[in-house]
Design brief:
6-stranded mixed beta sheet; 3-stranded antiparallel beta sheet; 258 residues; Metal_Ion_Import_ABC; alpha/beta; Rossmann fold; ATP-binding cassette domain-containing protein; 8 helices; globular
Length: 258
Amino acid sequence: MPPFLELTHVNVARGDNMVLHDINLSVNTGEHIAILGPNGCGKSTLIKTITCECYPIVQPETRVSIFGRERWDLTELKKRLGVVSAELPGKPTLHTTGRDAVLTGFFSSSTLWPNLTVTAAMRERADEVLEQIDAINLIDKPVGEMSAGQQRRIMIGRALVGSSQMLLLDEPSNALDISAQRELRNLLRKLAQQGTGILLITHHIADIIPEIDRLLLLREGRIIGDGPKEELLTAPRLSDLFRTEVQLTQRDGFHHAW
């Protein structure tokens, strides 16, 4: 199976500002990796580069390869990339049921528009995913009436329904209370143990589940560390990354910082 992602000498500007500087990154399909950094370090721009919402500056040495391919039809690529962020993918989703919201993942759409054809196989797959993410009770519930934690669970199902190879999670625990954060992390642990790859972008140390074994540190648009979690997830490295004194503790495989 080809690597999920290969970035070589990638520089990305947004407007007049250079946001990412000479990014070199390789992520294997099925790998569990967390990208950690302070606000404004370029994490979201990196996700947008992976999903082809942002494009690198064209240079001879620059290369972007996703699932072994450098050129994609964006509609096809969106079906292969399971992206989960803190925001719902479009307001129309608020008025659809949990099952229908998951089904939109087949079409990379915000809702099931009348021109979209949902097959029996798609509905069967959606129900399988809803069971996988422990959301059978949300099948007929409108997304707009769900809690933030339930919506995040449905968004993960939407990301998984087309392809369960890789999940891209952009600050997934934002706006969740303590109980919903715990449920989210337990779900991500279950998916990781079942073989789903995870690329997690966060600035919350507690989001880094035990199954994540590789850490990438990002600051001011540059990778300043890439290696095993046990080597990089330390108080001195975090203090340098966030430029403040950080204390770190560990319990049951989870790390907590203050």
